[in-house]
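Subject line: Sequence and fold of a protein, written as structure tokens
Area: Proteins and the way their chains fold up in space.
Start of record: The labelled sequence and token lines come straight after this line.
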Amino acid sequence: MEAEPSLPPPEPLRRAWPAFAAIALVWAALFAPQLFQRQVFTLGDARNFRPFAEFSRERWLSHHQRTHWNPYVFAGISAPASLADPRPQYLPGLALDAFERLRPSNVVPLGGPLLAHLAGMLAMAALARALWRCGAAGMAVAGLGWGLMPELLVPFAFGHDAQFVSFSLLPIVLLAIHHACASGARGALGASLALAAVAGLMALNGHPQVEVLGGMLALAFAIERALHFRRPERLLWIAGAGLLALAIGGAVWLPALRYSEDSFRGGGGSLGVSAVEIARFSFGARDLLSLAWPQAVGFGGSTYWGGLLGTDYPRFLGVAMLLLAAGAIVRGRREGAVWVLAGFAVFAALSSLGTTLGPVGDALRAVVPMGSRFRVPTVWIGIAQLATALLAARSLAAPSDAPARPPRLLWIAAAALLAAGLALAGPLQEAFVALIRSMRPAFDAATAGAAAKAAGLDLALRAAVLAAAAALLWRARAPRGDGAAGAAPALPARLAGPAVAAAGLAALVVLDLGSVSWPVLARATGPLARVLEAPEPELARIGAREPWARVSSTRDVGFVPGAPVVNRRDFEFYSNDWIRWRARTLGGTHGAPPALWRRMGDITRSYGAMCALGVVYMSADPGPPWSERQFEPFFRGPRETVYRLRGALGRAYAVPEVVAPGNDIAVISAMMSPGFDPGRVAFASGPGATGVYPGSLACRIDWVADDPDRVILGIAAADRAFVVLADAWFPGWRARVDGSDVPIHRVDQLLRGVIVPEGRHRLEMTFQPRGWASGVRLTQIGMLLAAAFTLVWCVWAWRAPRPALRRPG
């Protein structure tokens, strides 16, 4: 066992409890509707991510079957592999049963993510204490500042649980890295095991972009900590923990990586997400003002005029937090950890500009592993928020005995900003309106005027916060021990003392950030019924009754009752409620659909293509009737008309001829042709299936089984036939005819076709995501190794005394 000089202990833990108590109280107040009233979040993607997970859970509880394929949207899509289902289906049956019955969300809706958030806030406070020797106020600033950041909370309110949990766990990863470098051998092993467990949990939670960004920060932080404590060999411990975490998360990241090869993010022969797609989620340079001035480019929604396609909230870092972080850089300019955090904060801010930076943005994306597959540069701001919160705590650490100078320049700046804000809301408002309308010509004068007035008043408010933060920071850094030697300070002096000022700073941080985050959380909060309240259209009822038929909606109605239709993705076609309604459709919403859908945007304009895709029923808004030659009226209601396609084929049919017109563009062009008859010909994407199939003309097809991951058809044909299943083709599907493997041919761009010999046969198709079996084995091995190492550590810890920490140098 290595001998080490001891490091003077940090401030006693009993003096840190006010910080942990304040964090717990603010957390409980922030999520009181969820904790005590069983409320959920109802905005954004909350209703899109929930339906399949509920469907998958229902199938497990009722049939004890895992569900990998979502048959209800996109003509079918791989669900867990595409990270659309967060349930731990990789667990053994007994463990999965226990999870479903004991998961925190059974007691408190969103209980798991909420616990991760609380753990992350407490870890931030502990990390500030470990890094900077902060007292309770500095710890509270780190924990509360991090926990209230908009880029952490608001995506959660909009249904992005994976992003929220991954970011929430990142401070625990950094805390474990610190202790892996600072502790003795036994403590380092315990910290490394904790690092493996938490990083593995992040990998299992499954938000690749956060995991990659967090991994980059963790690597730089580990190198700095190892050099700081003069223990470079500890990097091997941390690397081992990282490898163990990768093994633990294998059941999620390996299938997701394989899925990504065939998704629009990185597959189908493309090099990743297109620049046009990235541009929709890239900040304009003016958006960076909103890091300190929330209303700078409109808070969000209809008043937003920044560089993004649209947003619901600013990525605010907090005026008080930025002031404290700047002070930390000045005070800690000789500390490696300060520069690592500051460097990542700057890198994150620049990376959030994405395509706005042109070639520089391309170079920044090239630095990030798999950067070409990430389409949302603004997610980088989450790293800037974490770095800012930790740096802010550093500014409150170890006040010096030298008198602090009054922040005259800051007060002057605050006064100037206050005057500027009042001017923008008053005499300069028209000029600001002109600027806004030059950036967004579609804005009318009233909208631009409202945005300008709100921006001016908000600037004045943030100027007041800046002045108050400067005053409190000045007082918090004042020398302690005012008054006669040995005498207790008078009550007024105690009330205005450094400790009270530091606590006031923590409260100001809460108010400053909460003014942006809390209103969005409050607006998003509601009962679960609000997520499920979209009325079931008649088209969905028909689709549920006739599963052999696919349906497609063309109604221009919002699928969220009472919500405005902002763009076409708000229409019923894009709702994921089709899963809840159990109706197979062409629509739906997903963050990474298969690359084969990339060029299918106009396919619904072709009657022949719709028949080929198995569509039997289509709905429309009431109005002029569709062509009765192709569409037979089936249902007429006050808000919906349903048509049945004449000559519809359904989801399973046989074609007598298969031809290969060329590449995917040629296939889609042929499908869009007015003369396309999908009952006579199928267009193959390769040469292996081309030919004539005389048995298809009188082929009989019977449905035997139609489960998400297994379809069985009974086939009877007098001669060789080509059977098309109008469900999505995707790697991972396997076909057998009478138990013997046969190839699945991709036809009509995204459908499955199989050659069936003459006679009576049983055609079975089954699905398992690529990488699933290997990933599950990797996870099981990783968990067993983690359990074994933990047992070894427990025996070691029980037998030996705990060594003290070590001061570098």
Observations:
- The chain has 28 helices and 20 strands.
- Residues 144 and 510 are 7 Å apart (CA to CA).
- The two ends are 20 Å apart (CA to CA).
- Confidence is low (pLDDT under 50) at residues 1-8, 482-491.
